């Protein structure tokens, strides 16, 4: 792919955009390059045999026009004509989708690629700034998403083009810094002999972190889910509160590491299902203090802004932005775009 080739890209409207997770599938329609995103529906993947039936039922329930293109975000790599979901029974088969729905094109991308695609267009009530700093225009941005797991992606700007770069940043190492951290981290169980960030900074990781806090405080708690911890914290349970305090500091350090390594002067953005549930702990100062504590570069870190994404469906909006103006984004389509004109055999 060359940047010069991007000017030849376009999609036939209406474009269906889809954010497919292990639990829920979200769909929206984009009717043209100047139209707003028309949100259709969110539905449980378990309620449908496959993605084709979910789309057909969702669109018929909402009375929307038939799409000609589908751009789909999935959690995981796109490695062939059959794309299984990690935490659901669906297998995305683009050629079958083209047949079932009469589409002209299907594009499948990584879920955090979609999260990165939304970053250049976020403003106003879509974001809540945490701490100081101001985003530089046309500068690298980074998105970090504690949800079921911990997703991460960069959005690089080069030659007047935005380039989304997904990866496995959620699996980098994370460790203690403060005295409180050292007291807790020695009690956190390792996975494969290491402590990856996702193992504590995610919905599935929060109970592991809480067990470490429980041992450090010599108390008895048996939190099984992230929601149990956040609910207990609202009731001022000391173990739950301390767990979220440690979580926020560690997330701040990790966000700062990515900002520093990529010089993300366009800002670092937090998304994911856990983020809105712990906003209190992200805005009380500890997250930002940990983010900025990167000696000898504290002044640089203070200049880089951090945000909580407040948009209800950022991945869908990112895909919609790409559908409207694909020439503004360098999205690799080799092996990830299927067209009716190429044949369905």
Automatic annotation (TrEMBL):
Binding site for ATP: 18-23
Catalytic activity line of the entry: D-glucose + ATP = D-glucose 6-phosphate + ADP + H(+)
Localisation: Cytoplasm
Transmembrane spans: none
Keyword line: ATP-binding, Cytoplasm, Glycolysis, Kinase, Nucleotide-binding, Transferase
Molecular functions (GO terms): glucokinase activity
Top-level lineage group: Bacteria
Coiled coil spans: none
Pfam family, one: Glucokinase
InterPro entries per record: ATPase_NBD, Bacterial_glucokinase, Glucokinase
Alphabetical list of CDD domains matching this protein: ASKHA_NBD_GLK (cd24008)
Known EC number: 2.7.1.2
Enzyme category, top tier: transferase
Keyword Kinase: yes
Family that this chain belongs to: Belongs to the bacterial glucokinase family.
Name of the molecule in the record: Glucokinase
Species the sequence originates in: Roseibium algae
């Amino acid at each position: 792919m060359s940047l010069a080739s991007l000017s030849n890209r376009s999609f036939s409207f209406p474009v269906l955009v889809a954010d497919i997770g292990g639990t829920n599938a979200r769909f929206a329609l984009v009717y043209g390059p100047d139209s707003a995103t028309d949100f259709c529906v969110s539905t449980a993947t378990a309620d449908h045999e496959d993605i084709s039936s979910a789309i057909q039922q969702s669109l018929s329930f909402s009375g929307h026009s038939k799409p000609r293109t589908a751009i789909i975000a999935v959690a995981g790599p796109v490695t062939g004509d059959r794309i299984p979901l990690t935490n659901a029974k669906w297998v995305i088969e683009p050629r079958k989708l083209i047949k079932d729905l009469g589409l002209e094109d299907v594009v499948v991308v990584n879920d955090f690629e979609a999260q990165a695609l939304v970053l250049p267009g976020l403003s106003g009530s879509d974001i809540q700034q945490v701490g100081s700093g101001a985003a530089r225009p046309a500068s690298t941005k980074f998105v970090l998403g504690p949800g079921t797991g911990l997703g991460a992606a960069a959005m690089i700007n080069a030659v007047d083009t935005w380039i989304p770069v997904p990866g496995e940043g959620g699996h980098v190492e994370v460790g203690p810094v403060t005295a409180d951290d050292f007291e807790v981290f020695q009690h956190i169980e390792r996975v494969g002999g290491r402590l990856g960030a996702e193992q504590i900074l995610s919905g599935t990781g929060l109970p592991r972190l809480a067990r470490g806090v429980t041992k450090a405080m010599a108390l008895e708690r048996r939190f099984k889910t992230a929601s149990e911890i956040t609910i207990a914290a609202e009731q001022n349970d000391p173990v739950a509160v301390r767990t979220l305090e440690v979580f926020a500091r560690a997330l701040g350090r990790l966000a700062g590491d990515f900002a520093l390594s990529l010089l993300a002067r366009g800002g670092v953005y937090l998304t994911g299902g856990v983020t809105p549930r712990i906003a209190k702990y992200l805005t009380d100062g500890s997250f930002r203090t940990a983010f900025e504590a990167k000696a000898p570069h504290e002044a640089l870190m203070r200049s880089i802004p951090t945000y909580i994404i407040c948009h209800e469906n950022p991945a869908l909006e990112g895909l919609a932005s790409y559908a409207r103006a694909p020439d503004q984004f360098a999205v690799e389509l080799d092996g990830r775009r299927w067209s009716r004109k190429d044949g369905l055999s």
